[in-house]
Amino acid sequence: MMSPKPLTSDGGGGASSSRSAPMVRSTPLQVIHILGNFMRIWSVYSLYSYLSNSGDSIVGFIFSCLVPASIIFLVLQKPWKGRPLPNSQVVPTVVNGGILALYFVLWGKGLIACGPLIALLAEYAGAVLGVLSAALYGRKVNVWKKIGGLAAMLVAYYLLSKGWSTRTHSPLYSFGSEPLEKAAQTIGMKEMVVPITAGILSALRRVLARRVSLKNQLKRRLHAITIASATCFLFPFAMWDTILGSASDSIVKQQLPSWAYLSTVLFGMVLIFYVDNVAEEKLHLVFSSPRHLMVSTGCIIVLEIMYKMDFSFLGFLVCSVVLGFGIFEATSLERSKKNPLEAHELSNGVFQNQLPISALPS
Hints:
Largest sheet: none
């Protein structure tokens, strides 16, 4: 009679292979996420370079980018087909379009005033909604950790405003001795308010979109309505800006086929939505998270060197680490007991405020 085979080696190997299988399957998605974010950040640097040299109106340029982006989303998603969307989802989505339009305007103003590095890092300021949620809804879970995270985020933005990420003003040693084309000026916290406000609006827009659309397919349909609504909200302001002659060129005369324009539409508005959507659904990687910040940090370092910006590697690394620590603490909510997406949504200020929602159309 044969004795049974020991299970130690085979069992361990089976467990190891079962653990490694999801990691192997997620590797292509992680590559797509990194490349998608790199292309989006590249479009931001291209847009900054174009607007700095041309002097075009940021409102007019953003509007001219939203028009084709809204058409692309409407053609791809066809929100008018399928089951009709109820007003309980359409009305908040239209309002969300107004928030998106305001976000684009403030983000563009912050990009021109503070540069692409600070404009990109300020998008993570939406993590402060986790602290506000704890204060407003009385959730006594890791409150002091959230307050400490908020303090760390403020320290990071203060260091950025003092020029720690620039070679000109950073107190840390910076690699590279090549001459700079243009030295950066210190910004100050007053100028930082605009991009930080844009970052908070961006997080608020994501929370509202996640609350209204519980299904992935519904999220895409409603996002098409959101982009179209944002275009409509910006239309009168763009026309008024053109009529007053505040822009050097009208919207029609802008260099629409330029790389800055095409990359902003394709990578900064269209592709990044699907990339972030895949990251949330498949990788459980949300925007206001240290992991997402780590990807953006690597892309920013590469593009700062490519565009020969006034850049201090060590100073920027210190600011990014402090900001990442602050985001980690500000969004902490019993991570070991909750789904990552659920924990992020709760930390963004939507717990204890769950409204009953009927079955949603797909």
